[in-house]
Design goal:
With 150 residues, the protein is an all-alpha fold. It has one domain. Helix content is 98%, strand content 0%. It starts with a helix and ends with a helix.
């Protein structure tokens, strides 16, 4: 009989342990489900984050390509402007040389014209003096002729 109460106590103890074990198993199952749910949500967030990150990367890469094209276009425009400026500088230098040459020619021609005018003036004055001298020389002759003819 002694085995009976001990056996009964052991059975109750065993049943208590089995109950605790079943409660703990349920708690483990619940926690496992919560963990699985959390993992799924995390995976979904990661997938969304990955998708969002992938989309953002694609947007940035597209914007980067546009900016690179704009930069290349700006560089090409700058090179064109530099080439145009060089051409304009050469043109300006050429025109400056032509203007200087033309100014020199104008100065020489003006000097030559002044010299010619002075020579012409001098010749006119000399001729005028010759004519006067001739007229003066002719005047007594004319007077004589006139006196003879009259």
């Amino acid at each position: 009989m002694q085995n009976g109460p001990v056996s009964e106590s052991l059975t109750r103890l065993q049943n208590g342990y089995l109950h605790v074990i079943s409660v703990l198993d349920k708690r483990i199952d619940t926690l496992q489900e919560e963990l699985n749910t959390a993992r799924m949500k995390l995976n979904e967030r990661n997938a969304l984050s990955t998708t969002e990150a992938t989309q953002r990367i694609a947007q940035l890469e597209a914007a980067n390509e546009v900016l690179q094209l704009e930069l290349e276009a700006a560089r090409a425009q700058q090179k064109a402007w530099v080439a145009e400026i060089r051409g304009l500088k050469v043109s300006l230098e050429t025109k400056t040389v032509v203007i200087k040459d033309n100014n020199r020619r104008i100065l020489r021609l003006e000097q030559a014209n002044r010299r010619f005018e002075e020579e012409l003036k001098a010749k006119k004055q000399g001729k005028a003096q010759e004519v006067k001298a001739e007229n003066n020389a002719e005047s007594p002759r004319k007077k004589r002729r006139m006196s003879i003819t009259s």
